[in-house]
Amino acid sequence: MRELFGGACVVSTLSVLVLYYSLVSSEVADMEHIVDETNMGDMHDKEERRRREPSGLQQLELNEAQEKIKLLESKLAMLESRLPPTTSYPDIKFRTYKDRRRILVTGGAGFVGSHLVDKLMLDGHEVFVVDNYFTGSKRNIEQWLGHENFEMLHHDIVNPLFIEVDQIYHLASPASPPHYMYNPVKTIKTNTVGTVNMLGLAKRTKAKILIASTSEVYGDPEVHPQPETYWGHVNPIGPRACYDEGKRVAETLAYAYNKQSGVDVRVARIFNTYGPRMHANDGRVVSNFVIQALEKQPITIYGSGEQTRSFQYVSDLVSGLVTLMASNYTQPVNIGNPEEKSINTFASMIRDMVGGDSDIVHLPAVEDDPQKRRPDISRAKAELNWEPKVPLSKGLAKTVEYFRKELSRTKHSDRNSGDPAEYLL
Questions:
Q1: Minimal CA–CA distance to 244: which of 184, 198, 157, 312?
Q2: How far apart are CA 108 and CA 106, in angstroms?
Q3: Is 385 exposed, middle or buried (CB count within 10 Å of its CB: 0-12, 13-18, 19+)?
Q4: How many whole angstroms separate alpha carbon 302 and alpha carbon 74?
Q5: What DSSP line would sit under 124-149, residue for residue?
Q6: pLDDT given for residue 82 in this prediction
Q7: CA nearest 184: which of 236, 111, 239, 235?
């Protein structure tokens, strides 16, 4: 019995030892597993940090990229500084769809055209300018570029144009002797083929069209002053014929389209005009004399200087064109200033105004140069209630100021403000 009890105790003791050993082994294994996981985590973290930390080559490339970004940012800031502010547009009249017109101005980047564009834009209309930049300049209309009511089309009207408009001011044509004589065939095509294209556009869209004719249709007149009923005295094969006869044909085309197709036409016979934005090399009296006086060069007069001209300031002309377009009068109308002066008198006035001591030099007379030019504006007064308002002295002073600024320019940013009100008198 004692032996049996002793054997049972031994077995129990062994069982307890085996159980204890099992528990200890399990805890040790768990601890080893935790340690292994900890070590693996540390190794993973170290590898991740090593992956995230750039190498020497990567750091160099990163620094170079940052430098390039800084350089691009500085260039972008410089370009932004050269852009006009988004709020730089002149204030314009608000119009609803009921009275806002879509108006096309051919030659709208030129001297007269750009001033007409200013007036139409300020009046709240949508304006489309078409110009091939032969004598026009984008600087003349840059104050409107980007405006929601303005669109510029680089186009030659000798080629057809398809656009939807309500009114057309057809001003496109070189208008000074050096420019229209430079390519006489192109001048004729502009005033004939180009006019056919614009009249065809007016016919298709049922738009009202104003043809910008000229006092040159009277040639070297034998009637003085010149009324609209005078048929003119033109040399059809002379050096000026490409312009003179081109405009005469343009008038003929306008009234042919009116009679045959019912196109609503207006014809303005424009007399000598001056003012800011005149082309510096257009060879006209005012621009020539002003620039020569400002540069202290001799003032050159072709012929005796006793030939006469009548000059109107550009804002008066623009007012006359807009008034004619708005009227119901369909016959040709002279738009000019009846104040007549000799070329010698103009030269002296401009020299005194500039304040220089330029000599006045007489050169041989130009072929077919008109000896007298003065409009009879009785029809404009009666039918349009229009007459010029700007005195010659005030207009010339503004023109001299403009050319003085132009001649003093030394870089592109030196420019006139582009504010249309700057040139209004």
A1: 184
A2: 5
A3: exposed
A4: 55
A5: T-EEEEEE--SS--GGGTGGGTT-TT
A6: 74
A7: 239
Which residues are CB-contacts of 170 (< 8 A; sequence separation ≥ 6)? 106, 107, 194, 195, 198, 209, 210, 211, 212
**Which alpha helices (DSSP H) does 53-153 contain, by range?**
56-82, 111-122
Q: Max alpha carbon distance in the chain (Å)?
A: 167
CB 175 within 8 A of CB 214: yes
Q: In this structure, are residues 102 and 166 in contact, taking their beta carbons and an 8 Å threshold?
A: yes
- Considering Cα of 324, then 311, then 304, then 187, what sign does the dihedral take? negative
Q: Can you read off the two tokens belonging to residue 183?
A: 């390519």
Q: What is the mean pLDDT of the chain?
A: 86
Instruction: Provide the residue type at 350 as one letter.
Output: I
Identity at 359, one-letter amino acid code: D
Buried b / exposed e over 287-321, threshold 16 CB at 10 Å, is: bbbbbbbbeeeebebbeebebbbbbbbbbbbbbbb
Q: How far apart are CA 362 and CA 380, in angstroms?
A: 36
Tokens representing residue 396 in the block: 């010339």
Confidence band (pLDDT; 50, 70, 90) for 154?
very high
> For the ranges 245-249, 298-302, 320-324, which has the lowest average pLDDT?
298-302
Section 342-347 average pLDDT: 93
Q: What angle do CA 101, 103, 109 make, to 5 degrees?
A: 145
Name the amino acid, one letter, at 302. Answer: Y
Task: State residue 286 phi and psi, 5-degree precision.
Answer: -65, -50
H or E segment and range at residue 286: helix 285-294
CA distance 75 to 78: 5
Q: Mean pLDDT across the stretch 361-377? A: 90
Q: How many residues are present in the chain? A: 425
Can you tell me whether residue 67 is helix, strand or coil?
Answer: helix
Please report the pLDDT score of residue 340 as a whole number: 93
Beta bridge partners of 249: none
Known active-site residue 243: yes
Q: Tell me the mean pLDDT in the region 70-86.
A: 79
Candidates 169, 218, 243, 423; catalytic one? 243
Q: Which two structure tokens, joined as six digits, stand for 176?
A: 């000074």
Closest residue by Cα to residue 137 from 279, 250, 338, 318: 279
Number of C-beta neighbours around residue 243 at 10 A: 25
